[in-house]
Design a protein that fits this description.
Blueprint (H helix, E strand, L loop, with lengths): L29 E3 L2 E13 L8 E7 L7 E4 L3 E8 L8 E3 L21 E7 L4 E6 L10 E2 L2 E6 L8 E12 L16 E6 L5 E5 L4 E8 L6 E5 L4 E6 L2 E7 L4 E4 L4 E7 L7 E7 L4 E9 L31 E7 L21 E2 L4 E8 L5 E5 L5 E2 L14 E4 L4 E7 L4 E9 L7 E7 L1
Parallel strand pairs: 2-5, 3-9, 4-10, 11-14, 13-21, 22-24, 23-30
Antiparallel strand pairs: 1-2, 2-3, 5-7, 6-8, 8-10, 11-12, 14-19, 15-18, 15-20, 16-17, 16-19, 20-21, 24-28, 25-27, 25-29, 26-28, 29-30
């Protein structure tokens, strides 16, 4: 992958993705009257990143069940009891959850003080691969904060043999094993990438087995490409929303920080063989996992036929751009109206206001010298074609934009409320910056 950050489009969207076998884990939950209770704790922990080396202290989100992810069904409402056991204020950010203004960090919810608890109602309107994390306030803190995948399964059956969650994270480690938080200079540290907390892993598969691999870029600032060698990779969903299925060029996927991609992979390699999975961060490629085809008999006589699209989440099939509200937003360069999350106040002027139901087109221009990542809270958007006469056949909530480039996106302002927008340059020391917009 070249050093430039590729725009997310149908041809180039996929140049890599990390992988590691992670068995789906169901949390300890109790369903009552259509609601599901979930206890979630922000707490201190330790992760072993170097074999035989010292453990790395981290701040993490934990549920009662042991495992790196949470799984629920579309249509459920989560009643979340969130407790903060960290020595600093904490706030959860739910990447991919649309239309829940009460859950919006900072714009609707203040950070939770150390030792405090709160209850949050989270309706799961859409199926998809989501991410919950503590990183909105994570810059410059004493510890790195890890993300927690949240999977919302479709109510309809999906024809796959296995469903795996693959969380890729990056680290900047000091010699003593401690990790530097983002937003500060990582001088005298060693970069390290993990998949589900491991530096490498074998992913077992049987011949003709179909795997649904939910790739999540949990890196702090890095746009990554992960290539699965010797296999076709079909992209089925992006940022939690079903896409028109398409073949990843070269069996590779490109993910900006926070991006989630659901891919279908059929195990077609020779029995007993192993296919390397390489991660590229724009500087070098490194092996992070292997897809290992066992010598057991195939699960079926031939691979499954081409997969049908995933069930729709009900986002609009068409948008009328002619009467859209059009807004120019500058990214990078002097912060201007952008602030770090710690300095956010609700009294600040919004970036824009839109009437509920109106189409909004944002022209995002990156004035920085390096790629910048944009994230829209509350809604998913279409990436418009260069001539502004159509859009790519997928939905996104996160987009990497190259220096000097302008990308146009469009979304239906469906959900009233106050919503954040984020930007961060692809540099470890770069600050995360935010503004907000209003749907009225």
């Amino acid at each position: 992958m070249p050093d430039r950050i590729l725009a997310l489009d149908r041809r180039e969207l996929l140049a890599g993705l990390g992988a590691t076998a992670l068995a789906p884990v169901l949390p300890s939950i109790a369903a009552a009257q259509g609601r599901t209770s979930l206890s979630l704790q922000a707490k201190e922990g330790v992760i072993a990143l170097r074999p035989g080396g010292p453990g790395t202290p981290v701040w993490t989100l934990e549920a009662p069940a042991h495992g790196p992810g949470l799984r629920f069904k579309r249509g459920e409402t989560l009643e979340i009891a969130f407790g903060n056991r960290l020595p600093v204020p904490a706030i959860t950010s739910w990447r991919g959850i649309g239309g829940v203004p009460a859950a919006e960090p900072l714009a609707a919810r203040a950070p939770l003080a150390s030792g405090a608890k709160e209850t949050l109602m989270l309706p799961l309107r859409h199926a998809g691969s989501l991410l919950c994390d503590l990183r909105l306030l994570g810059d410059g803190q004493a510890r790195m904060a890890r993300g927690l995948p949240l999977i919302v399964d479709e109510t309809e059956p999906v024809a796959v043999d296995r469903d795996e969650v693959l969380l890729i994270e990056d680290w900047r480690l000091r010699p003593d094993g401690t990790a530097v938080a983002p937003g500060v200079d990582p001088q005298a540290t060693e970069p390290l990438y993990t998949v589900n907390g491991l530096t490498t892993l074998d992913i077992p598969a049987r011949s003709h087995q179909r795997l649904r691999l939910r790739f999540i870029n949990g890196c702090q600032r890095a746009v990554i490409a992960v290539k699965i060698e010797n296999h076709e990779v079909w992209v089925m969903a992006l940022d939690g929303q079903p896409a028109e299925p398409f073949l990843a060029r070269g069996g590779a996927l490109l993910l900006a920080p926070g991006t989630r991609i659901d891919a279908f992979v059929d195990a077609t390699a020779t029995a007993g063989s192993a296919s390397s999975i390489l991660l590229h961060d724009g500087k070098e490629a490194r092996p992070i996992a292997r897809l290992v085809t066992s010598a057991e008999p195939p699960v079926r006589a031939a691979p499954l036929p081409a997969a049908a699209p995933l069930p729709s989440n009900g986002l609009p099939a068409r948008m009328d751009l002619k009467s859209a509200l059009r807004v120019d937003l500058a990214l990078g360069g002097p912060p201007a109206d952008w602030v770090i999350p710690a300095n956010f106040v609700n009294s600040a002027a919004p970036a824009f206001r839109a009437k509920a139901g109106r189409i909004v087109v944002l022209a995002l221009t990156n004035r920085a010298a390096i790629a910048t990542v944009f994230h829209l809270h509350g809604h998913h958007f279409r990436l418009l074609d260069r001539l502004d006469d159509g859009w790519k056949p997928f939905w996104l909530d996160t987009l990497a934009i190259e220096p000097g480039q302008t990308q146009r996106i469009a979304f239906a302002a469906e959900f009233a409320g106050r919503w954040l927008i984020e930007q961060v340059a692809t540099d470890w020391a770069a600050p995360r910056l935010i503004r907000w917009y209003s749907v009225e």
